[in-house]
Write a structure and sequence with these properties.
The complex is a heterodimer of chains A (105) and B (155). Chain A is mostly helical and 105 residues long. Chain A contains five helices and two strands, in the order E-E-H-H-H-H-H. In chain A, helix 1 crosses helix 5 and helix 2 (44-60) crosses helix 5. The longest helix of chain B is centred in the first third of the chain and has 16 residues, at 17-32. The chains are: A mainly alpha (105), B alpha/beta (155).
């Protein structure tokens, strides 16, 4: 199982770089994971999405797909793609230390 | 072959509900993975971006073996409406958006929407007849140019 080091801690990650144990995540890791995903700076808007993803995971056992994210996070689809150009649900999930959401919409 | 797909250009050539949705799911799914995507609507696929028709896309009920519906039954008046309504209700429960909303969403993700010049000439359509999210009406050569370097998916 590959590992990565964020905020001085070693965490287990899968081949795509997602944390395999969400419990190991701390907020301080987020900016570094974001950098590795190509996002140089996390604005409050980014954080709104990241915290939302984390909360959804904790409440429902899985992060939301893009459509649900656009409808319920308070951030519309257009803006989501501006914040996370390489796919908002996928990228925000990685930064939030949760598994990649599985869904087709 | 590269390890990841960076860009897809998806052709939408059919005007039935079941003919249009796969292309939309492919486009939306591509964008969700960070893959660049364009949709090129040609022939009856233009109905999906036609202001007058995009809210009235129906399931094909005749000669559609996938429906498992006898041809004579499928040909009864009103059948397309009934089957479409039935499928739409099921999709709504799964939060699959109706075609106009889905296409608007896909445009918001940054995917390019294009109409086919030849088909627009054939049906007498101009950009004014198409929804505002359509970037342009382009020729097949222009499509190949924008698809270059990526994958082309024909639906």
């Amino acid at each position: 199982m590959p590992t990565a080091t964020y905020d001085g801690h070693d965490v287990a990650v899968n081949d795509e770089g997602f944390l395999t144990e969400p419990g190991q995540w701390t907020e301080d890791m987020a900016p570094q994971i974001a950098k590795s995903a190509g996002i140089e700076e996390l604005t409050p808007r980014h954080w709104q999405v990241i915290r939302f993803m984390r909360a959804e995971y904790q409440a429902k056992g899985t992060g939301p797909t893009v459509r649900v994210l656009g409808k319920t996070s308070g951030v519309p689809i257009k803006e989501l793609y501006q914040l996370f150009p390489k796919g908002p649900a996928k990228t925000a999930a990685k930064i939030a230390g949760i598994p990649k959401p599985r869904g087709c919409i | 072959m590269d390890a990841t797909i960076e860009k897809v250009s998806i052709i939408v050539s059919k005007g039935s509900l079941e003919g249009i949705y796969p292309a939309l799911i492919m486009a939306n799914g591509a964008r969700a993975e960070g893959i660049e995507a364009s949709l090129f609507f040609t022939f009856f696929g233009l109905d999906a971006i036609n202001r007058k028709r995009h809210e009235h896309i129906k399931v094909a009920t005749v000669g559609n073996p996938g429906l498992h519906l006898a041809t004579l039954a499928g040909g009864l008046p009103g059948m397309p409406g009934v089957m479409t309504h039935y499928l739409e209700r099921k999709m709504d429960k799964l939060d699959i958006p109706p075609i106009p909303e889905f296409i608007e969403m896909i445009a918001d993700t940054g995917a390019g929407l294009y109409g086919c010049q030849a088909s627009c000439d054939l049906f007498g359509l101009t950009k004014d007849d198409l929804i505002e999210q359509v970037k342009d009406i382009i020729t097949v050569g222009e499509f190949y140019a924008l698809a270059a370097g990526g994958q082309i998916i024909f639906t």
